[in-house]
Amino acid sequence: MSRTILVTGGGTGIGRAVAHHFAAQGDEVVVTGRRPGPLQETAGGHPGVRPLVCDHTDPESLTALLARLPAHIDVLVNNAGGNTDFDTAGDGAGDLAAYARDFRANLDANLLSAALTTKAVQDRLAPGGAVVHIGSIAADQGAGSYGAAKAGLASWNVELSRTLGPRGITANVVAPGYIADTAFFRDRLTAERRESLVAASAVGRAGSPDDIAGTVAFLASPAARHLTGQVLNVNGGTRTTR
Fold it and tell me: For residue 137, what is the domain's CATH number?
């Protein structure tokens, strides 16, 4: 039976791979994000994928999105986010106002976006459905405000799992390590740093967006109905990347 899937941040990388994975299974997929161009690229050639523009940190944008979403959602994938430090000129170390701004940017992008989106669609989630958040290895290993936001996401998800559990809805976090073929590093990843990230894994290779998509699909499948409130680390056995 076809399901309805909502994938936030579905324009590139992991979000795109997740959307295509579910669409290939015959599900109806809504992909959202702030940039219409990448969303259209995700939907191109995939009749089951519908793009909708939304800023998931903005309550008004989310409210407008609700009017265009289906009445029932089987799976919510909170993928929107990323390390906003890559978008700033500096770290604000000598300026408290700039430091606060940059810190809040990561919290908004990675924690608030997931919380707001889940709250917005919570009543539409179908019994037996699933919520899957994309976390990060940074939650355990540290990466400034980005790591703090992802750690907060994992903690918040524990309470969410208790809230949704009585309705038969699971809530889990998938925490990737280094994933190649994404825009995460904004083209700032040096060859040396990439080699060190790969070398830190037990399997000796970078992860791929499809690795994460497969794990998300498992968490949304009947095989994972007794798995909730958890963080699944999908990092090739990486122990440290420092």
Answer: 3.40.50.720
Please say whether the beta carbons of 165 and 228 come within 8 A: yes
Instruction: Tell me the per-residue pLDDT of 64-112, one tens digit each, with 9 for 90 and over.
Output: 999 999 999 999 999 999 888 877 755 556 789 999 999 999 999 999 9
Q: How far is CA 30 from the centre of its chain?
A: 14
- pLDDT bin (cut points 50, 70, 90) of residue 142 is confident
The 3-state secondary structure of 182-227 reads CCCCCCCCCHHHHHHHHHCCCCCCCECHHHHHHHHHHHCCHHHCCC
Cα 9 to chain centroid distance, Å, stands at 7
What is the pTM (predicted TM-score) of this model? 0.92
Any catalytic annotation for residue 146? Answer: yes
Separation CA 38–CA 190 (nearest Å):
25
Give how many domains the chain has, as a whole number: 1
> 35, exposed or middle or buried, with CB in 10 Å at 0-12, 13-18, 19+?
exposed
Which pLDDT belongs to residue 178?
85
Q: Distance from first CA to last CA of the chain, Å, rounded? A: 45
Q: What backbone phi and psi angles, to 5 degrees, belong to 8? A: -85, 150
Look up residue 3 and give its two tokens.
């399901």
145 within domain boundaries = yes
Q: Answer whether 73's CB lies under 8 Å from 124's CB.
A: yes
Contact 180, 208 (CB under 8 A): yes
- Domain assignment present for residue 31? The answer is yes
From 103, 146, 178, 184, active-site residue = 146
Q: Which domain covers residue 124, as residue numbers?
A: 4-234
